Amino acid sequence: MYMNDNKRKGSGKMSDSIKEFAEKVSEGQANVIKIAQEVLGDDGKAVTFRLENQRVMPDRMESPARSHVFHDAAGFVRYLEDNKKPNTLVLADVDDVTIHAVLDDRADKGFEVITLCPPYHPVFQLLNETLLNQTLPIDVFARNVMRNRSIIVDSAEVKGQDLAVAMQQITISDAATTEVGVGTSSLNGLMCKTEITAGKASERLELPKSFRVKVPIYLNTAEKEFEIDMTVTKTRDGVVAIVDCPEVAIKKQEVFEDILTEVKTLKDINVTYGSPATTSWRYNK
Q1: What is the mean pLDDT of residues 149-165?
Q2: Average pLDDT of 33-37?
């Protein structure tokens, strides 16, 4: 802005504007007013104001709230042992398979919540992705059983080695059809028939109705044994295997309870079921 000697009557208004600007500056900011004067002529002079807002940084930034995620119970428990407070609260969410710890449930300036979220063990992850609760073409099913053969255990109904051999015969066959099965090992009255290319002959295979596996479900947890049901049937697209495993949900719950038991070893901490939640206060008008 320019101010000539002839316009000094308006200088009071300009001063008020500068004062108002200075009063509105937020805290934590510094203002530097640099005044540069230039002589324009004999009649007067111009004064230029340049206002610069420069944010003043604190000497030390405040640390962010802790929200660590642990993948094993042992590390989670050790951390809580070192950081627990009189009002630490631990909540186990069964549906989400997670355990939350509010480090100070009565904190005045916000809550810090750490979480235990156990991931699937890689071996169970493979089983879950390739077999469990799926409908697969019979040749794909056979290949996927072979990929998981290391966790198949012997049972009264089927030997792991026998099942692996049967699956191998299916994978090298030209075609597979269903037939009426006989004997106690037949699958729901069905039998899988394969034609072996090498011998150019047909071989009758009776597949069991189920087989058992033993595998750790979550990382750093004990192995669990459970049964996998399978049904072979014929569709318009060919022979398929329907794989079902209702028992796995029960086993997952058992493992989660085992993890929670380890967390419950913490002394002087309220450990229960639930999930953290907050809401806004309601005020009377």
Answers
A1: 81
A2: 44
